[in-house]
Design brief:
597 residues; alpha/beta; Alkaline Phosphatase, subunit A; 2 domains; 20 helices; 40% helix
């Protein structure tokens, strides 16, 4: 299209009359100045979030840019400079060439050139129309998954599958008695009775006297950023891998979401991410209940951005006896967090008060090493070739394997760092806060799409004296808290107040039949996980929108593990599954009935 448009520009600039040609020339000028820049920006956006530049998801992502500047590498800066140079340089070259063509037309014979311009432009219009109608199937197939796609894909005139699943909101509710999803503020009078009843149960639930004869063991919860389950191997994370062989190894484990805030929220509350926008965000059950059991609590992190990502409700100094966070400083801040946690657990801060010294400890440790830009010790950089510190983010497909190797090396360093915390006389939990995509689902990083790669993570739970267990069925971050309480032989006054399930008490049938939701960060939507998730003939998850306070939900569609709409959609089945999940979520039916159906 560029060549005939350049000719048209010269023809229009040469012609003094009629007026519409001068207006057309102005339009072509805008094209020369803006179109290359639009295509370049679209390419970068597509490589990052798998969405086009002109999309709602990109609008949401723009709000995250100020928070992401601290993760920019030198390669990312170079990428932005390259895009700016090309975005401005291409229009400049086109402008110079067009002016040259204009001068040429003024000096030469006009009529033949006008005929050439007309024919070239007509050919471009016919060719473009054919592509628009998908007449060239081979071109469409080749371009639809590419980030630097044909302009028709850029501007949404042709569908790009990797932009994610198409939303198909249903007019009817998922079940009788459920109201449509509401927008705007919700007043107390509009809260559903079921939601208010569940809030009351959470508020009054407490730990019961333990059957434990001796003192409680210490509890260590290690949360590792962006941890993919594939990394828990002897070749990459030998220390965690050995722990997995001795404890509960969850092979199909889901975070509460594909970003830290929803993932950590589910860990410390035992609740599904539907609760994130409620008052439960400011009342984390884990720390309240552990304090009631006499635990001394500590929080240690290699990052300090809890307030920035709306996590300061459930991660704040007032909740802990010792609170140690510091700005990210590569491996150094993670190493400091581990050292402080080790000191906390070893009672190195002894007060020489026997009563205080004998208190059990809960250490919650959060490490950032496996977050982009994936830092590691030189001695741990065994996977080669690996990208260096200059790699851009987002990165092109040709760099994927090198970035993946760099990520594996960073996990090896984190595994080395946390070895002092994997104490066999303590209850130890090692989980990721969420997963990480390396272009498998068309994106890089996390927080942008409901998919296997962003929402699934590793989970290992160890208790001294307990036998090892391999769990293949889907499990959730909400299961971690009730499982730790089971390890401690502590009961809740109302076990059904939380959403999670104790993995030591659940039967295989219960695990296979359960349903829970995961959340997307960039857009407020959920994926329903259930028995269908492990069935290759069924959707990976059912997407839906919901409002917890009004007890409402709107099914969208079934998606595959890449977050793309599946070819076969069964909306009746999806509505039935969402209804069934909500019935249990609001406790309309006994949990035992839901679990055994």
């Amino acid at each position: 299209m560029s060549c005939p448009l350049a000719l048209l520009f010269g023809f229009a600039a040469f012609t003094d009359k009629p007026k519409w040609l001068r207006l057309l020339a102005a339009g072509v000028n805008i094209y020369f100045l803006g179109f290359p820049l639009v295509v370049l920006l679209d390419t970068l956006v597509f490589q990052w979030i798998g969405q086009r530049l002109f999309s709602r998801h990109f609008t949401d992502a723009m709000g995250e840019l100020p928070r992401l500047t601290s993760f920019a590498s030198s390669g990312s800066v170079a990428l932005m400079i390259w895009a700016a140079v090309l975005g401005l340089g291409i229009p400049a070259v086109a402008w110079i060439l067009s002016n040259g063509l204009n001068n040429l037309i003024r000096r030469r014979m006009r009529a033949p050139l006008m005929v050439v311009v007309g024919l070239a432009y007509a050919w471009a219009m016919v060719s473009g129309t054919c592509h628009l109608l998908n007449a060239n199937a081979n071109l469409a197939k080749a371009m639809e998954y590419r980030s630097a796609a044909h302009p028709f894909y850029v501007f949404g005139l042709l569908k790009t599958p990797t932009v994610g699943a198409k939303v198909k909101l249903q007019a009817q509710d998922v079940s009788e008695g459920l109201t449509p999803v509401m927008t705007g503020e919700v007043t107390n009078q509009q809260y559903s009775p079921s939601f208010l009843a569940r809030e009351r149960r959470l508020r009054f639930a407490r730990t019961l006297p333990s059957r434990q004869l001796g003192p409680f063991p210490d509890v260590v919860v290690v949360v590792i950023e962006s941890l993919r389950p594939e990394l828990v191997t002897t070749a990459v994370m030998p220390n965690v891998s050995r722990l997995a062989e001795e404890g509960i190894n969850c092979r199909s484990h889901f975070s509460g979401g594909n970003a830290t805030n929803h993932g950590v929220f589910s860990l410390v509350t035992g609740l599904e991410p539907m609760w994130f926008g409620t008052s439960q965000r400011f009342d984390p059950c884990m720390f309240r209940w552990f304090k009631s059991l006499g635990f001394k609590t500590g929080f240690f992190a290699g990052a300090d951005d809890w307030e920035e990502y709306q996590m300061n409700g459930f991660i704040r100094p007032q909740l802990f006896d010792q609170y140690e966070v510091r700005s990210r400083d590569g491996i150094a801040s993670d190493r400091r967090a581990v050292q402080l946690a080790s000191s906390f657990l070893s009672r190195a801060d002894r007060s020489f008060d026997p009563k205080i010294d004998s208190e059990p400890r809960l250490a919650f440790v959060y490490l950032y090493g496996t977050h982009a830009t994936y830092q590691s010790y030189a001695s741990d950089q065994l996977d080669q070739p690996a990208a260096d510190n200059r790699f851009p983010f987002p990165y092109p497909a040709r760099m994927r394997n090198k970035v993946w190797n760099r990520y594996r090396n960073s996990a090896r360093t984190v595994d080395r760092l946390i070895k002092p915390l994997l104490l066999r006389d303590s209850i130890v939990v090692v989980v990721g806060d969420h997963g990480e995509a390396f272009l498998e689902d068309g994106t890089v990083g996390h927080g942008t799409r409901l998919s296997r790669y962003q929402n699934m993570t590793a989970a290992v739970l160890y208790c001294p004296g307990n036998s090892s267990q391999l769990v293949e069925q889907p499990t959730s971050h909400a299961d971690v808290l009730p499982t730790i309480l089971s390890f401690l032989k502590v009961n809740l006054s109302d076990p059904e107040a939380i959403d999670g399930l104790s993995l030591t008490a659940a039967t295989e049938q219960q695990l296979r039949a359960r349903r829970f939701c995961v959340r997307n960060y960039l857009s407020e939507e959920y994926g329903l996980i259930g028995p269908w998730t492990m069935n290759s003939t069924k959707p990976f998850a059912y997407r839906f929108a919901a409002s917890i306070k009004t007890e409402s939900a709107s099914p969208m569609n079934g998606i595959d593990e890449f977050g793309l709409e599946t070819d076969v959609q069964n909306f009746r089945e999806q509505r039935a599954e969402v209804t069934r999940w909500m019935s249990h979520f609001y406790r309309h039916v006994p949990a035992t009935e839901i679990k055994t159906k």
